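Alpha/beta fold hydrolase: structure tokens wanted.
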Amino acid sequence: MSPSNTPARGRRRRRVLTVLGAVAAVLVVAGLAGRDAAPVGHFTSAQAKDAFAESYDRAMADLPEPDETLDVRTGYGIVRVYRFDGPADGAPLVLLPGRASASPVWADNLPTLLQARDVYTIDLLGEPGMSVQDRPIQTDADQAAWLNETLRALPEDRVHLLGLSIGGWTAANLATREPEKLASVTLVDPVFVFDDMPLEAIVRSIPASIRWLPRSWRDGFNSWTAGGAPVEDVPVADMIEAGMNTYAMRLPQPARVPEQRLRELEPPALVFIAGESVMHDPQVSVATARRVLPEGSSVELYPDASHAINGEYPDEIAADLTAFLDSVE
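Answer:
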């Protein structure tokens, strides 16, 4: 189902379309500013960590209270995982956020998703959040390894993995390398999976990624990626801004997922593409996904959505996702 533009989208834009611009801003040029010799991601000072924690807690207040908080030890660090109890009907969902946005990015999605499934959210390792990296992540294989270890620590035999933006790349990277735990994989406007990032997005992201430049530069870029939505005075946007100013990431540039690996994908795949996304060419992404993904996959184009599709269409995404999960179990 491909939704049309609705008044509901406009009502949501003020609060949630703040997230993925900052995600993209640090995606290509992470670590340009304030680079030091530390081999792992870290907060730049104790005061910086405290400031981020305050903004993180404010943003988390928009989510339901987690039923369980897990800190999973992996070979690359400790991964923060939150569990939210739904109806426990079928394998749970595991949600991966966009870059620098952590678990609070799912505030508008959890109410509808929890009507269908138990849900886990993960703070990506090596990113601003409550996960703590203590070993270098140097390759795409390393990215798959820490996530695979995290999922294996969960009690369920199988999970449905969903990733947003760079989280979509992270999900696809795992699904094409170590899919044993996955009942399905859902990619929400993923970057570096079905198309490369446009030059304009790369150029615009560079000044927005330098922490000592004015916040207005980052806000302008964020608004551009979110279809012109205002981004000021929103808790999750403030958290992202705090992360960009206080955390030094040490992650490799993600390589585009090879088409041959996508052709051999084992878990059933559902893909949401935002028709107004500036992080890739939507038409190219849709055509590539439909051409390379195995039979049984589903590709949904939301024509009026920006890259912040999860906040614009949470109910529609939940409905399409629930129908897909029911069909593959």
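The chain has 13 helices and eleven strands. The chain has one domain: 7-328.

Cheers.
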